[in-house]
Design a protein that fits this description.
The protein has 2 domains: about 55 residues; about 180 residues, 3-Layer(aba) Sandwich (Protein Transport Mog1p, Chain A), CATH 3.40.1000. The protein is about 30% helix and about 25% strand. The chain contains 3 helices and 10 strands, in the order H-E-E-E-E-E-H-E-E-E-E-H-E. The strands form 2 sheets. Strands 3-4-5-9-8-7-6 form a 7-stranded antiparallel β-sheet. A 3-stranded antiparallel β-sheet has the order 1-2-10. The protein is globular and about 75 Å long. It starts with a helix and ends in a 19-residue tail after the last strand. Keywords: Membrane, Transmembrane, Transmembrane helix.
Length: about 270
């Protein structure tokens, strides 16, 4: 091989190498661009999800180790004001107006309550009624030495009394297991025990529906109760709002000790 042939061979090798490196750079650049586009698309999806939450849910509410956003149509009912006890006199009786006045039942361990007006059908005519959301828990039982032993029975005890109060036959006392969110998304998966109560007797002139969502984190038990008139426009906003409320719900792990001192937070395993 002469010098001219060697030069041609070297040129061909250099050309092939440059072509290979160029193709490699294009491939790397293409992968980087694809990854960037995927990140941009995922960020856009996340912000759309946040917009959906804000369109359907109210502000974040925190109390007693629970975080919750209820459908935005509901208004928070104020807690009762507890007057200061005077020395030497019996403790004043505190009336909690958040408790239902439309049936003979008080929710135990009531932490939060919300209400909203809905359009219902009463005796064939349109009438205004209310829908409610209640949050109850055994949280306060852990700060009372004489109640701690009963805390594990909180949910079952509540259900037994609620079923009886609504005259629900034993063969209709069924519970389902549901997970929220229903599909993989931006919230940790939570397991709920769901009880749908359909009492036959009218309440306040209409049939009310009670949907109970029970969740437990270690020994802290929480129930969310949604009460709505059966024949009303509540389902228009509840159909989307309730699943979003449940999937964004969180238990912080906070739990009081007997005497009122807070215990160390538990893990957020649902």
């Amino acid at each position: 091989m002469n010098l001219s042939d060697q030069s041609v061979s070297d040129s061909r090798c250099h050309f092939w190498l440059l072509g290979y490196l160029g193709a490699l750079l294009l491939t790397i650049s293409g992968c980087g661009a694809a990854a960037y586009e995927n990140r941009v698309e995922e960020t856009a999806k996340y912000f759309r999800y946040l917009e959906i939450l804000d369109q359907n849910l109210g502000p974040l509410w925190r109390d007693s180790g629970i975080e919750l956003r209820v459908p935005k149509q509901f208004q928070l009912m104020p807690k009762p004001q507890v007057p200061k006890a005077e020395e030497g006199k019996p403790a004043p009786v505190v009336i909690d107006h958040r408790q239902p006045d439309y049936m003979n039942f008080e929710f135990p361990g009531l932490i939060g309550a919300w209400q909203t007006k809905v359009n219902a059908t009463v005796n064939g005519a349109a009438a205004e009624r209310k829908a409610y959301i209640y949050v109850i828990s055994n949280y306060s039982m852990f700060s009372q030495a004489n109640q701690i032993a009963k805390a594990p029975e909180f949910s079952q005890s509540f259900l037994d009394r609620f079923w009886q109060s609504l005259s629900i036959p034993e063969d209709q006392r069924r519970a389902l297991q549901e997970k929220y969110p229903k599909v993989q998304g931006y919230q940790p998966e939570k397991n709920f025990t769901v009880i749908n109560l359909r009492p036959s007797q009218p309440i306040d002139g209409v049939q009310y529906l009670f949907d109970v969502y029970l969740i437990q984190q270690q020994d802290v038990q929480v129930a969310v109760i949604v009460a709505t008139p059966a024949d009303s426009d509540a389902n228009i906003f509840l159909g989307k709002g309730i699943p979003l409320m449940l999937e964004t719900m969180a238990l912080t792990g906070e739990k009081p000790r007997a005497g009122g001192k807070p215990a160390a937070p538990q893990s957020n395993a649902f």
